Amino acid sequence: MIELIKIILQITFIAIIFAFSFVEIKKFKFINNLNSFDKTSINIILFLNAGLIFSLIGIQDILLFILIVLMSIFVFVKKFNNIFISNFKFQYIYLLFFIIIFIISIDISYSLDLGWDAKYFWFLKTLNFYHNQNFNNLINIPAFDYPHLGSYVWSFFWKYPFNSYEYNGRIFYAFIYCLSIFSFFYNLKISNLLKILLILSTLLLSYEYSYFSGLQEILIFSLILISAKLSILFFEEKNKNNRIFLLLILLGISNITFWIKLEGFILMSILIVCLNICFKTNVKEKSISLIGLIFIIFFKIIILANFKTELSSFEFEETFYNNNFSNLLEDVKIIFYYLFIYITQVPLFIICLIAFMITFFINKSNDNIKKFVTIYAILNILFIFVSFLFTMEDVEWQSRVGMKRVLFETSGFYLITIAYLLKKNKNIFK
């Protein structure tokens, strides 16, 4: 019973600090007009970037905890009248949101099994931060250059606010996962019943306990889905300042994915490139995108360059010099085989593929949304082939154990096809 109460309080704590931790700018109406799920998503993105800086500088996470709590209290007091006087739309959906996170949290607390990568890489980094060791100490842990931000967040919510059970840290994974799905569908101009059905269907099609066993793919999935929603908002936004704001948030997501999993950054870079190609961005927006991505890359290179250690996650000699490209055609066949097999095991891909094919029959016009999804899909598949071809391990083994997780990471992005099908050529979001 005590554990159940703590789970409820943990979810409540996470929901409150991210609902009220971002100080809204009165003159910036765009932020004020966003729904609660979108605002919470932005708050989390800001928090993760702040957590990254705190972890790299070596500032104790207790200070981050105090800062975010004080900000939450400040914003809550500031908005007190609006919170309790104004009538919220779709109040039931917040209850549904909480219930689903609670159910997933129960599953996490019951199973407790950690994934293979979690046991040997991510959990060790989590313990490092849980015991108040800094980023520099990671050099004493295997795979130093493996990204650490997911583990840092895991340890943060393990310690705060109760410092009791390890799985409390992974409840945050459940929170951002549900948030990304609710945020995506919340603004669709469809009936409330259909909206709930889409949310529940997506949850049922995408949920597996293994994704919450300390693995980092669930964070990449959630952040890319949030990015898909923001991309559509970017496309429909006419105000230049608002578009730049959305672009900066997308770059913020790119930055944190780089410190969660390497492929996350590549997938986000592809998204931003596709955004610039398909949505006719101006010179300023293109410049911000390019400079931002370059800065993110060099920032990480500079950080890692300070440590004289082997970069075990990428070994140039093993990847290129010792790689036998005489079997290139055979390797391509192997990758194609597992790609086909695992696509069938990621239900979201199947559903979204069907939706995408239907849109071509309903509307054969070549609009920006369709181009956006098509180009992203092509580059996504190309990246999969390249990454598995140049793996340090055996191609067959690597494809067998890793292909499904890589496919899962981007499966949420293709929910755009569902929204597009529902709205046809009309505006998808309000």
Proportion of residues in β-strands: under 5%
Computed Rg: 21 Å
- The averaged pLDDT comes out at 86
Strand count, sense and barrel status of the largest sheet are:
none
Q: Could you say which overall geometry the principal axes of the C-alpha atoms support?
A: globular
Write structural notes for this entry:
By secondary structure, this protein is mainly alpha-helical. The protein has one domain. It is 73% helix and 0% strand. The protein has 20 helices and no strands. The protein has helices at 2-20, 29-32, 36-57, 61-78, 80-85, 91-111, 116-130, 149-159, 167-186, 192-206, 217-236, 240-258, 262-278, 283-305, 316-321, 328-343, 347-362, 368-389, 395-411, 416-423. It is globular and about 55 Å long. Residues 314-322 have low confidence and may be disordered.
What's the SSE blueprint?
Layout: H1 2-20, H2 29-32, H3 36-57, H4 61-78, H5 80-85, H6 91-111, H7 116-130, H8 149-159, H9 167-186, H10 192-206, H11 217-236, H12 240-258, H13 262-278, H14 283-305, H15 316-321, H16 328-343, H17 347-362, H18 368-389, H19 395-411, H20 416-423
Helix pairs in contact: 1-3, 1-4, 1-6, 1-9, 3-9, 3-12, 6-9, 7-8, 8-9, 9-10, 9-11, 11-12, 11-13, 11-19, 12-13, 12-14, 13-14, 13-18, 16-19, 17-20, 18-19
Structure at a glance:
With 430 residues, the chain is mainly α.
Which features does this protein show?
mainly alpha; 20 helices; globular
